[in-house]
Amino acid sequence: MNAELSSVTPKFPNVWKLYPVLIEILQNMEAPELLNLSLCSKRALKTVSPVCAKLGPELEVDFKFNDTKMVVFNHGLGVQTSSTNASWQHSEEDSFLKTWVSSQSRIQHIIQLFNPTNLTAKLDLDIDPETTERMFAWAKQQENRLNYLKYGGTSEEMVVRFLKTFSKCEVLSLTGNLGQQFRVDFPLESTFLIVNQAHWVTIENIWNFKGEVFGIFQSSLRNEDLNVFLKDWQSGARNVIEGLYLMISFEDFDIPTIVSDIPHVSSPYIRRDDQQETILYEVFNDDETMIASLYCQEMTFSKLIIRFSDSDDRL
Amino acid sequence: MSSTEQGTSSAAPAEPTTAPESAAAPEVPESFYYVHGKDKVVHKVSAGALQHSALIHGMISNLGYTEEQAKANPFPFENIDGDILQMVVDWCNQHKGKPTPPEDTNLPKQKEKLFDLVLAVNYLEIKELLTYCCKQVAMMVKGKSPEEIREIWMIPTDAEDEAAEKEAKKRAGKEAAGETAAAAGDAK
């Protein structure tokens, strides 16, 4: 604390007057407690701010504006540390809108306090129209800071609007039980797009994908679809972005079927992520240039990885 | 450093709380020093245990006291309560010549005692114990709301801070006025 000020406040314990001690105490605190301490008074905020600012670059701040009608603030210091969170809502009877509106200053406070390099938000755009509009406006306002935006609802209209509005966000994630007829007919442009329950993602969406990484999980694609896709790519009939990294999961995927009738070689491969041995399939062009590599990854669930790269950038 | 009259005459030195040295201990007899706090109760502590305190270690390293001289000149720590100094001495004795464990669960749970211990340990420069104490202070507010933190750590509200600041400025103004008047009086 400011030594001059603390010396004039008898209520304040003497222990806070020792700056090195104070800093050591604060450094032993986790983000939610630092946040709560910063809310105690202006002086507490001033004291905590330098410690929080140091923590910020390492911190992944995650807001959930979710269907439990709560605003949840999570933080995680990497995968080794379990996340802890602070959450708030006014009362059971309060609408989410009321909680949301009254939370704005606190959300802003958290962002200013930690100034995190990784800011994630999960939006629930299905609560009510007014809250949805406000969430869109908030996320748009934070666009330059937000590098991970998630939507987990069931509104097809919102999915389309979400994809179009936040195409510049580094990572977009969609998880929603959408109708069987739902399709997207415009280019998907996010750098890193993750779609769960991706029955709606078509081969055409992959051709038109403008980003770098496309995760298509619980897809309705079939081995035969991907075989045709690879043949078109291999023959040069159509192109995807150079260096595209595709992650796909669907029932009974089978890489030998996917690469059938396409020049390829298969060899044992140690995956970098889990150091387990798998088979790597390398697909070749007619001039014997490698154009893509495929393997199976089984970290959380089995998925196919297709990496479109040339011979100079082998795995 | 001189001792107080009361410290040297009326209070009997407390025996060190460590177990007797084992047969494998060095043959050179260990030197002891004496300390007392606000309550004047003198504690006999070995030089080995006192090594934890950078402050005392610095004081005794060049003294070359004999046993009698050390007994006659206990180090007075008038700013440390007797029970707090006892805790510090016990901790130094318990951890004499041993690597410090990653956690210490024997720290006081009562916040006033813990705060006093922090102040004493910081003054005596006992780095490891200070680290434990700071962790314990941080743990006091784990999972607590702003209001609970305010209560546990006795943090003043903005209004209290402002009132205290106003009061301090008023006092400083009065003092300055007093000094000016005194200076004017001197000049006459």
Write a structural description.
The complex is a heterodimer of chains A (315) and B (188). Chain A has 2 domains: 1-58, no CATH class; 60-313, no CATH class. Helix content of chain A is 31%, strand content 24%. Chain A has helices at residues 3-6, 19-27, 31-38, 42-55, 96-114, 129-141, 156-165, 203-207, 223-235, 255-258, and strands at 60-65, 71-76, 84-88, 118-123, 146-151, 171-175, 192-196, 213-216, 245-248, 264-270, 277-284, 290-297, 303-307. The N and C termini of chain A lie far apart (53 Å). Chain A is elongated and about 75 Å long. The model of chain A is unreliable at 1-11 and 77-84 (pLDDT under 50). Chain A has 315 residues and is α/β, with parallel strands linked by helices. In chain A, strands 3-2-1-4-5-6-7-8-9-13-12-11-10 form a 13-stranded mixed sheet, covered by helices on one side. Chain A is built from 10 helices and 13 strands. Chain B is mostly helical and 188 residues long. Chain B has 2 domains: 5-18 and 26-155, 2-Layer Sandwich (Potassium Channel Kv1.1, Chain A); 156-188. Chain B is 53% helix and 6% strand. Chain B contains 9 helices and 3 strands, in the order αββαααβααααα. A 3-stranded mixed sheet of chain B has the order 2-1-3. In chain B, α5 crosses α6 and α6 (111-124) packs antiparallel against α7 (127-139). Chain B is flat. The interface between A and B is medium-sized, with 30 and 31 residues. Chain A: Residues 192-239 form the Sdz-33 F-box domain. Chain A: Pfam families: F-box (PF00646), FBA_2 (PF07735).
Give me the secondary-structure category of chain B. Answer: mainly alpha
Please state the average pLDDT score of chain B.
80
Q: Radius of gyration of chain B, Cα only, in angstroms?
A: 22 Å
What is the annotated CATH architecture of the largest domain in chain B? 2-Layer Sandwich
Separation, N- and C-terminal Cα atoms of chain B = 44 Å
- How large is the count of helical segments of chain B? 9
- Biggest interface pair, residues each? A-B, 30 and 31 residues
Range of strand content of chain B: 5-15%
Strand order of the largest sheet of chain A: 3-2-1-4-5-6-7-8-9-13-12-11-10
Number of helices of chain A: 10
Number of domains of chain A: 2
Order of helices and strands of chain A: HHHHEEEHEHEHEEHEHEHEEEE
Largest sheet of chain B: 3 strands, mixed
User: Roughly what is the average pLDDT of chain A, rounded to an integer?
Assistant: 83
